[in-house]
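Entry for the shared binder. Reason: the reviewer on the internal report wants the predicted structure included alongside the sequence.
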Amino acid sequence: MTKTESTQHRILDAAEQLFAERGFAETSLRTITTRAKVNLASVNYHFGSKKSLIQAVFDRFLQDFTGELSVELLTLEQMKAEQIDAEKLLYALINPLLAMDKKRKNAISIFMRLLGRAYAETQGHLRRYVTEKYGHVLVRFTHLFQKGYPELTNDQIFWRLHYMLGSLIFTLAGSDALRQISEADFNRSLLVEDVIKEMIPFLAAGMKA
């Protein structure tokens, strides 16, 4: 890794942690540079602006996630409509998350907290950026949902995906705390995969209700 790449990674590592912990509005560039141990000029040189830095943070997750998701969707796209169900659609989302978590420690938790922040805070530039760069993959997922459940209207599809993603993000953003509760209250040690398995029947039932 070159010195330039090392500086970029340090800035991105610091930014994603701080954005996840404090939110976008409450995290200043100076706070990020202090955590990353770089000067403000380095952030401006590598990213140009805070908005571009936010987008770069999401890129690190979305490039891997959408790449893996695209492969999962290709398999589903080759199936007949009656073969597509909510469980298969959910695993198409979850398998890329698990693959990402194996590459980077706590990747799922950080990514979900960032998505939660993006939902809660007004970041119009981020929504436009994600839609323009990755929207085609997400549209494929929606089309498969429609293919498997043709009786649902477009607005029903929208709301069910919204509630499903909201539940997924909320749960996985706090998966460490849930695992601690499971250990303390039920004497059951869980991996993040186990938390996800507990969610699948609930999420699938909501999607196809």
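Summary line for the report: The radius of gyration is 19 Å.
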